[in-house]
Amino acid sequence: MLFGAGYSQAQELSENDRRLAEANINVLLLDFSKYSSMTKTGKYIEPSYIAKFVGLFDNKLAPVYNDVDVENLTVNPIEANKYVANLIKWYSSGVSVKLEILQTIGDPVRINVDGEHYAVLMKCKKNVFGLYTKSKILNNTKELYFLVYFSKNQDAPGDFRIHSISETIPAIDTLVVEEVVETLPVKDTVVVVPDTTPKIPERKQDWAIGGLSGANFTSIEVENLARNEYWRMKNKMSSTVGIDAVFFLSQHLCMKTGVVFAIYQTSYTLSDYYADQTTQSLETDKDGDQFYRIVTADIEEDVMLRYLTIPMHLQFRLGKPGKVNFFLEPGLDFAYLSSAQVNVYGESTHQGYYPDLHVVLYDLDEYGYNTVDYSETGFQTEWDISSINFSGYMGLGVNVPIGKHFEVWLSSNYVMGFSDIGYKYSKYRDDYLQLMGDPGKTSTKCYGTLFGLRYVFNK
Prior knowledge:
Layout: H1 15-35, H2 47-54, E1 63-64, E2 78-79, H3 80-90, E3 96-110, E4 117-132, E5 136-152, E6 157-166, E7 205-222, E8 231-248, E9 253-275, E10 283-284, E11 290-318, E12 325-354, E13 359-361, E14 371-373, H4 374-377, E15 380-382, E16 388-402, E17 406-417, H5 432-435, E18 442-458
Antiparallel strand pairs: 1-2, 3-4, 4-5, 5-6, 7-8, 7-18, 8-9, 9-11, 10-11, 11-12, 12-13, 12-14, 12-15, 12-16, 16-17, 17-18
């Protein structure tokens, strides 16, 4: 509607300026309806809405009709910043606001002598609905008067702000712009909430606990074996399961621990291997005679290490509580060996060449000169290694909230063993240590994906 009859006072607005003013006032009131709810989702207070709501007024002490006080604990009207404080204190999930413009009362009224500032009075019906302190329902509908100020320069009307919201018609002719306590930036700029504006009650997370599982490529790396021309090492897929607990040190920093059952698997293959006096060193048998061991072998060795792991990680989260966020997770893993199982397949033949006698002995079990078929016997043994394994951990992933108390997460991770797990004792007669000698450092590594579900305890 165009401004009509009502309050009368000399004014210098053209028809086009009046239309522009009306359009801008409609936008201002639509913004008021949106930002006075203080929430975007209906679940928690939205930080940006507070600043934008206060920015709709020409000063932070503008009088506002208090329609959110169910128990009549405050006087009416109250300042805009106190209105915000009460709404945040009493309605942790925000409110629902509907605003209907009923009529414009009169033409724009010039409120100072220079003719640059004007006031317009708008009659609106406002409904506000919410859950008061999570115990009472607020459903309040009132017809209110919005007094709007704007300025007129040489170009067009601008700087539209709400000066007051009241239950009765204010005395426009007694108001002057010079009485404004504090002028705020125009709506298109970023509004900084004054120190007196209340802080937002953040959704604070205390701690979380849940289960996890994952699939990894794992390796048990034997330093010298990996460089040997006869042996081949192959990484294998394995699984991880466990429980984890996350403790929130701040909004963006967590400490993570738990108990995780992890498996490392690797196979070692020795193919078409042959060694005789030209490559072997002299040995001494039980009778004190010197000989060269002649070996032919085709062996596959599968190793499985099972660990109980206690992670000690830090998790850096990028994002707000209760929303999707990405995280970086460095840390350390302390692992205790629960079992070290070795399965061997294939066969090998050992003979003894005695250079002093110029003879090759074979099929003498008491001297170890025989053929062993590991596949036929189903050979299995335990590996005597260190029971403690210390590793570094790095993860990168995403947390996705489900409702108020659950979150699912997915991460890719890399674990590098710092410890030498101690390959000092032979597993069987044809392992690397027996045939080749010093294996060097032996350590674990894995990289893969983890998935989990946690229950979040909120403060």
